[in-house]
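Q: Could you predict the 3D structure of DNA-directed DNA polymerase?
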Amino acid sequence: MKLSPRDATGYFARPDPAKTGILIYGSDVMRVAIKRQDLLRNLLGAKADEEMRLTRMSATELRREPAILLDAIKAVGFFPGPRAALVEDANDNITQILIDALADWQAGDAQIVVTGGDLKKTSKVLKAFEAHKTAYATPIYDNPPDRAEIEKLLKDADLSPDSNAMAALNDLARALAPGDFRQTLEKLTLYKLGDTTPLVLEDVAACAPTSTEAEVDDILHVVAEARASDIGPVMNRLQAQGVNAVTLTIQATRYFRALYRIAANPGAPVYGLRDRDRAIRQAKNWGASKLETALGVLTDTDLTLRSAGQRAPALALVERAFIRLAMLGAQR
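A: Sure. Here are the predicted structure tokens for DNA-directed DNA polymerase:
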């Protein structure tokens, strides 16, 4: 059965131990790994590994020794509780092994949890799980976490942010890789250890990582300082380094949100930026009104890049948006 990303969030929080299994797949290895980790923790509990209720195997191992999956599914452990057999990096080379395991599964067997990369719609592994009546297949997209996901992460970390801190954390969630964002929350948990007061912007500022790599900082400063003629050369360098267009847009959005916050709230703390004085000067030159317009341009660009019908070169769309922003910033 297909499990939509929206329904998957609830299922990962409360997985059904009576189901045969689930396939979790997507192009971002870290995002897939985090969802798999959440599912297994909520399905098996925190002590599954030490109680030997979880058996792990790779697709390569399974292809070399097909019987290990069925053995893991049928094995009865010493410790009571639900069990699972995890198959990582699945591909069509092990399709028949997975189909046989799904067919042989019976109530009381270990649940089959499979992870894979960016599987095509024609993938035999994907079709096997989608066609099964008691197994799920769910894609994990490269979208940043929504507010509900962020709130759940904060609840799990026992953090209670005020409105300003929550806005800052939303920005960080869009700009950082999922693993980096979770590490930031872990750092905040340690930072607030023994402190029962709400999480405030200053706390986020103390624990937030710097915004971007130095190379990406270059293009952000070029745009923020309205140096339109420098955008092309810097974008060519970023393209040669393999920078992703969506990631670049997210980083730019985060940076301009920081500038907007500075312009709209003079004197407020400035967090997560390499050169705070430079950012303050840029925000003053732009002003809150123009920065609000700039954020609209970046949001439209982000939506265009993620659109299914988008066919233009992605980095060219970003470069065009940056030139438009630089020209906007130059207006007085």
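Q: Anything worth pointing out?
A: The chain has three domains: 5-139, 144-209, 212-332.
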